[in-house]
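Morning!

This is the sequence you dropped in the shared folder:
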Amino acid sequence: MEIYLDNSATTRICEKASGKMVHVINKIYGNPSSLHSKGLEAEHEITHARKAVSEVLGVSPAEIYFTSGGTEANNLAVFGAARAKKRLGNKIVTTAAEHSSVFESCKALEAEGFEIEYISPDEDGNISPEKFSDAIDEKTILVSVMMVNNETGAVFPAEKIKGIIQKNSSPALFHCDAVQAFGKIPVKPYKLGCDLLTVSSHKIHGPKGSGALFVKKGTHIKPILYGGEQEKKIRPGTEALPLICGFGAAAEDIGIIAKNLSEVSKLRDHAVSRLSNIEGITFNSPQDSLPYIINISALGIRSETMLHFLEKKDIYISSGSACSKGKKSHVLSAMGLSSGRIDSALRISFSKYSTKEEIDILADALKEGLETLVRARS
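The structure's back. Tokens below.
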């Protein structure tokens, strides 16, 4: 039996998305920019997908710009906003626990002369709104804060950011990376007060290679790619029609978010109960984290060693963000955790398809792994 609990890295594609993609690949092969009937047919499919994504977010379809994924959307938001607003200041406020696509984009802008303030989370993974209030000022032109941390599941105070920007008389645009939140908890850009918001297809059982950036009507950003009229020149290039259509189908297949969250919360509670009884397991996620993610450390066993042990049993979890390629977690480092906890960290991430049986099998395997691997070292 295969146990897949690495859903924050990617999800298994749902039947509705894969079916839609096969249909589009075989039947809807025109270029959406072509003026003949095959092109118009393709354009209609993109319009349908754009509407599907916009409805989940509660925004206008005209505010959705398709990209190749969350990483490109984050780059577009960060670089696009910074370069559009630089005449008003040069300061960007973000966190030291952002996804690498935001973190590294900010590092690149820092090299260009922008001032970047990285707010570190507390040891439990959370960040207080007061830290943002102290950092955001009249020179700040962009605040980029994720809604849910991809490694710990910590829910950052995104809903407080717009109010802080206004209170501190800042001209900043507010960008929110909602990749790990989209489809799992309600994500409503207008309620959050954000100007830019990132979502991704393959985290909601859609295909890899498709994402979207919400750009609030009236918000100006500069493109990072040039060469065509597609996506109103914000993201030019021939659209990846099958992937976009798969994304739209996955958005339609999300189901009832509150119901899914309730069921996953029960699974998380069961997992915490089982894992708490295993000697050597410590928790890195805050107690009020998103239930879809649990970050633990199997103390004394390097993450890679435990992952290979579990893989032999057809159990798949991760040591953190898949984008890190096994490098030490900058998120856990920013939290100030010890090297022992960081080096032995494991991320368990659920989907709406996860089951209690899978958790029980994982817990038994982790217990066996801790006992077996520790003995092997001694």
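Headline: The chain has two domains: 3-12+256-377, 15-252.

More detail when I'm at my desk.
O.
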